[in-house]
Structures are given as C-alpha cells and as structure tokens.
Amino acid sequence: MSLKKKLMEDFKISMKNKETIRKNTITMVRAAIKQKEVDERKQLGDEEIIDIISKQLKEKKNAIEDFKRGERQDLVELTQKEMDILLEYLPEQLTEEKIEEIVVKTIDEIGAETMKDMGLVMKSVMPKVKGRADGNTVSEIVKKHLK
C-alpha cells in the first residue's frame, strides 16, 4: 500500500474513532502533500512524501524547544504526540551508533580529515540516512569525527 493510501485509510479510522490529534496530524500531512502536488503539477511518490513528513517532524522538534522556553508544557505534550504519529509513517529511525557507523565509513571512503570537508561528508551521508535520521544529529556526529 502506498504511503498516500495508508494516510487516507488512517485518516478515515481516526475520524471513526474520534482521535482528534491523529486526525489533525494526518490532515496536516495530507495538506502539505496536496500543496506540493499542486505546485509541481505531479503525483508524489513515497520518497517525496517521506521528505515532507521528515520536514514536518523537524519543524515539530524546533517548536518543542520554543514551547519549553515559553513554559507551555501542554503544547510540548501535544507536539510530542504529533511527532509520535509522524514517526509511524517514516522508515525506522537509525540509532546514534548506526549513524556514527555510516558517518565513519563515509569519512573513510572520501578521505575527509578536517572541518573543511564537512560539507562533502554531509552531502554523502544524508542520502544514505534519508528519512531515517535527523540532519542535526548527523551533523553533530560528523563534527565529532572531523578535526
């Protein structure tokens, strides 16, 4: 089943079960998909939908930081629930150890040594972890391994 169909099925189920947070989260994802399809005048595949969901997940992580600074625990909890729902539609997330393994292997492959090579390393690593790891996490691990 395509990701788009799964989203639609889950949307219907969440409406029947009156799961407001799930319904609203899926609606947000479907709206972003529809917007991109209209903008680009094409049907999106699973890879592009994963990109959209990953982007929304990143936005939610940033929002949680803002809510914590504003001492809005209610919004932190709501956003965390939304993130959990979004994660259901992404491939299984990589552990930091696995990301580190990929980063070290990539650094060896391209012969990177200094921070000047960071862009090159990130450019090589990100397609390998697409949808399965946060760019900030990858960036921190790359910085740790470059001088």
UniProtKB/TrEMBL annotation:
InterPro entries, per database record: Asn/Gln_tRNA_amidoTrase-B-like, GatB_Yqey_C_2, YqeY/Aim41, YqeY/Aim41_N
Signal peptide positions (record): none
Membrane spanning residue stretches: none
Listed GO MF terms: carbon-nitrogen ligase activity, with glutamine as amido-N-donor
One Pfam family in the UniProt entry: YqeY
Gene3D superfamilies (UniProt xref): 1.10.10.410, Uncharacterised protein YqeY/AIM41 PF09424, N-terminal domain
PANTHER family, per database record: ALTERED INHERITANCE OF MITOCHONDRIA PROTEIN 41, MITOCHONDRIAL
Protein name per UniProt: GatB/YqeY domain-containing protein
Lineage, opening ranks: Bacteria, Bacillati, Bacillota, Tissierellia, Tissierellales
